Amino acid sequence: MKVDLYEKIWMWAALGIVVLFLASLGFSYIGRAIQPPSHVEMIDPEAVRTDEEFGNPGVTINADGSATVVVQAFMFAFLPQEIRVPRGVPVTFRLTSADVIHGFQIVGTNGNTMVVPGYVSQFTTSFSRAGEYLIVCNEYCGLGHHVMSAKLIVEEGAGSAGSVGESGGVR
Ligand SMILES: [Cu+2]
Known about the structure:
By secondary structure, the protein is of the alpha+beta class. It folds into two domains: 1-31; 45-160, Cupredoxins -  blue copper proteins (Immunoglobulin-like), CATH 2.60.40.420. It has one helix spanning 5-31, and strands at 58-61, 67-74, 77-79, 82-86, 91-97, 102-106, 112-115, 121-125, 131-136, 149-155. It is elongated, with a radius of gyration of 20 Å. It starts with a helix and ends in a 16-residue tail after the last strand. The relative contact order is 0.17. Copper (II) ion (CU) binds at residues 102, 137, 141, 145, 148.
């Protein structure tokens, strides 16, 4: 079968693009630990403020040294406004919205999820660098969207000694 030269070039170019896309998917999944969420848990959005867990958002340090962060998102803020977690330990974020869809992005890390009313978004990550991180809402949620932010402070905790090189963590 005779295939025209230009046809051949386009065929190989199309194949190359597919390979490139698959490679970048693989890189973000394995290399950067960026994965789609797999957690499904439902909650009544109107009961969020009186919920035992989400009505009292905050940080809990667990017996094994890991941390659980409960966050309530609403127009136009996150509660708590300031989150303090130790460096180098697994940190599980649990979030829900009391009104519309919001985003929760910890800038400069792989911590990023949608916060959908009716659902609990959950992800676990760890922070290998102490310091202050900005948290922003990255889903347009209304007139005050641009002011919807919070602060994450990663502290040099007692449990974080010798945890350099933690896998699955972020910069
Ligand atoms: Cu928002």
